[in-house]
Design a protein that fits this description.
Layout lengths: L1 H16 L2 H8 L3 H15 L4 E3 L4 E3 L1 H29 L3 E7 L1 H6 L2 H10 L3 E7 L13 E4 L8 E5 L4 E8 L1 H7 L13 E5 L8 E5 L2 E5 L5 E4 L5 H8 L4 E5 H10 L3 E2 L6 E4 L2 E5 L6 H12 L1
Parallel strand pairs: 3-4, 3-5, 8-11, 8-12
Antiparallel strand pairs: 1-2, 5-15, 6-15, 7-12, 7-13, 7-14, 9-10
Helix pairs in contact: 1-2, 1-3, 1-4, 2-3
Length: 298
């Protein structure tokens, strides 16, 4: 099909130019290659399309009819190819990312604004989903997850902070009434505000200081499916209901203002930051390629 299209383009170029030499000068092909293309087309159709003399080249009646129909059709083909080329040369189109809520809140904000200002023809769609999904099956171009939840056949690229911590905090009023825990085991006698994964699992609270490692499952009055609804945990902690454990950056505004107070800070769990992961195919869609390059440059 590609060869047939090339021959049709060659034929139309010759007709519009009025000859092989003239077409060669304007089309960037040799006169002999154009002549051969027309011969192939005539052989394929079984009809003479051009009358050739030593002085001139003119379309036959069949050639004239074909040229009249080809001109708008091949114009549409050229326009379609130009659209595809624009995706290659100037990134445009839609980029769909699948990310957990904490990434949407803490990692993406300082990235997406400069990215979209640099590439105004790209439209970014962010799907917030805390459960692990097959991003391609979900209709997304790429995902952002933490190392233990990456698919093995994907390329993983660090994005955002390279180290994060899970912080513990409580309101000043709560600590004034119940006292400051001195060791993680003290949490077993405090009401703790817990989060739950989308799949239903309730993650244990892990602590480490030096060689000492502790895993706890403290009880509490509130259990929230983590994600955007984690703000309910923060609100409860601000109201003095108990001790909350969330990403440090999520709690940072309240820690900085003093409305929440750090608890057992020397025991806070730290871990590697998230990764952008995407298929390892050679030709990425231009919006995804632009995003990957932008993240690498940052």
């Amino acid at each position: 099909m590609a060869a047939e299209l090339q021959d049709l383009f060659a034929f139309l170029t010759v007709v519009e130019a009025g000859g092989f030499r003239e077409a060669a000068r304007t089309g960037g092909q040799s006169a002999s290659s154009l002549s051969e293309a027309v011969r192939r087309l005539e052989a394929r159709l079984g009809v003479r399309l051009l009358n050739r003399t030593t002085r001139s080249v003119a379309p036959t009646e069949a050639g004239q009819r074909l040229a009249e129909r080809l001109k708008p059709a091949l114009g549409e083909v050229s326009a379609a190819l130009d659209v595809v080329s624009s995706f290659r040369d100037r990134p445009s189109g839609t980029l769909r990312l699948n990310v957990p809520a904490n990434v949407a809140r803490l990692v993406l904000p300082p990235i997406i604004t400069p990215f979209l200002k640099l590439y105004p023809d790209i439209r970014l769609e962010v799907v917030v989903e805390d459960s692990f999904v097959d991003v391609l099956a979900a209709g997304c171009d790429a995902g952002i997850r933490y190392g233990e939840r990456l698919e093995q056949d994907m390329i993983a690229l660090p994005i955002g902070p390279r180290t994060q911590r899970l912080a513990l905090a409580a309101s000043p009023a709560y600590l004034a009434g119940r006292g400051m825990p001195q060791h993680p085991r003290d949490l077993l006698s405090h009401p703790c505000l817990r989060g739950q994964f989308a799949g239903g699992a309730i993650p244990s609270w892990q602590f480490q200081r030096g060689a000492e490692s502790i895993i706890l499952d403290p009880a509490g009055p509130l259990l929230v499916r983590t994600g955007a609804s984690a703000d309910l945990l923060v609100s409860a902690a601000l109201d003095g209901l108990g001790i909350v454990r969330l990403f440090e950056d999520w709690l940072a505004p309240h820690l900085n203002s003093g409305t929440l107070v750090p608890v057992l800070e020397e025991w806070w769990e730290s871990f590697d930051g998230p990764f952008l992961y995407y298929p390892g195919r050679r030709h990425l869609p231009s919006p995804l390629r632009a995003f990957v390059d932008f993240v690498k440059a940052g």
